[in-house]
Amino acid sequence: MKLRSRQRSVLAIVLLAIAVVVIAVALSQWLFGVGLDPRDDTIRRAAGIGFTDDARSTLFSILPVALPAVAAFLAPDTRPGRVSVRLTRLVYVCYLVIGVLLALSAARYGFDDARQLAEEGQVFIDTRAAVERLLLDTAWLTLAGIGLVLVRWNGKRERSSTPEPVKLSPPQA
Fold first, then answer.
1. C-alpha dihedral, 11 to 17 to 23 to 25, nearest 10°
2. What is the DSSP letter of 41?
3. Could you give the CA distance from residue 140 to residue 63 in angstroms, rounded to a whole number?
4. pTM summary value
5. What are the sequence ranges of the domains in the chain?
6. What domain of life is recorded for the organism (predicted)?
7. Nearest to 91 by CA among 9, 18, 11
8. pLDDT per residue over 2-53, tens digit each?
């Protein structure tokens, strides 16, 4: 089944919208998902120690990483397609910024055993677990970075494949 250019553009925008929703939900879960426990804050939520810890699993999943790449692949070479490729780049940049901040917040909490012991009375995430989570988060961020690079390469190829207009000189008398 071959999709027309308009159908491909609409499908690409829908996929990008789904990715944006997943990223926005993860950001909301991390920054605004305060529970009833007074110890629940952004650092603890980023670390996922049992309060409202869904932000990491929402952000570091296949949907926000793969959907923009599929959208860029489906985008036609027409103007709406080029716009969706630009939006794909923006989605990847937002994912990377939010992902780096979330991963660093989780690592900050995990590497601070003394603070956990003083505030919680026990260590929820030890240094080994913090390193493991940081490595997994880095793997997801690397996949998103690869997606961003591939979308950029694809965009450069599209621009270079269109012929440049030939400038004609005015007639000589």
1. -130
2. -
3. 11
4. 0.74
5. 5-160
6. Bacteria
7. 18
8. 767 778 888 889 999 999 999 998 888 777 766 655 556 666 666 665 555 6
